[in-house]
Amino acid sequence: MSSSSTESLEVELSTFYDYYDSYYDAPKLCSKEGVRRFAASFLPVLYSLVFLVGLAGNILVILVLFKYKRLKSMTDVYLLNLAISDLLFVLSLPFWSYFTVDQWVFGTPWCKIISWIYLVGFYSGIFFIMLMSIDRYLAIVRAVLSLKARTTFHGLITSLVVWLVALSASVPELVFRESFNEHNFTTCKPIFPGNFTTWKLFSTLEVNVLGLLIPFIIMTFCYSMIIKTLVHCRNDKKNKAVKMIFVVMIVFFFFWTPYNIVIFLQLLEFMGVIKDCQVSRSLDYAFQVTEILGLFHCCLNPVIYFFMGEKFKKYLKMLFKNWQLPGYFCKWCGAHITYHAESTSSFHTQSTGDQDAL
What pTM value is reported for the model? Predict the structure, then answer.
């Protein structure tokens, strides 16, 4: 290992979701063993919960899309890609769950791949939520333009662009991640060449800009214009559409804004702006809580975009009724499914001509 790499490891704080690395890099005068013990007892259970719920929910979304929706619109394409993004995100969680209670035992190749998959799922999921906001904007505010723009073909093209951007933004994880022994502990984290401070600054700002700032600007514009349009149109479903829009936007920023704030504060700590040991510990605890909060968002996406939509509830009922294995469970929970299938909520408004609403 080069001297520059060794020097960078001595000063590195947690990067993205590697808060547990700093427990071993922290100066002895600022012990973080309590933070590590808290993570080992707290995170694996929540990682497992997010994994199971996110896996089941997003697989149901994909089954419904292929069996009943058949990807007939831009909305369907985005929903499919969003579910795939969330699946990528949650499939990496068992590895990080084991890492929090023991150490990294999967070697450098898996260290690179799992870190890369995690970040690709993170970026692509947020980008597809952003695209769905644009899709709703076109359907409601630019209804005439949407007739030409909101096609399956355009949905496939923009989805391809999103995946390319997400893959490109995650390349540093694939290149710089390494598994190595440090202080008798095998870890998985990036070893940046050259100026480590520059790379640390770049990686944090990349997450903040691509993961929060740009989506915030675009979604705020889209939803403000949608609400303005709905307020001025007379439609029986206007109130439901407005409520749905607020749910989408508020949930997204509630679950991801705290995480982005914490990693920015950790960057200030890394740069020496924050020097207090107790504040450093508090940031580590805050990172754990806000990261889990963000992870739960991928479980809520099926609820937000599907389970609250009247058409999906009808398709879900059909899926559980017609398929042998789901049908077995349907007999056990039939009343519950029927109850949800009878409630209605969707983005659809009669004035938009958006016939593919859920």
Answer: 0.77
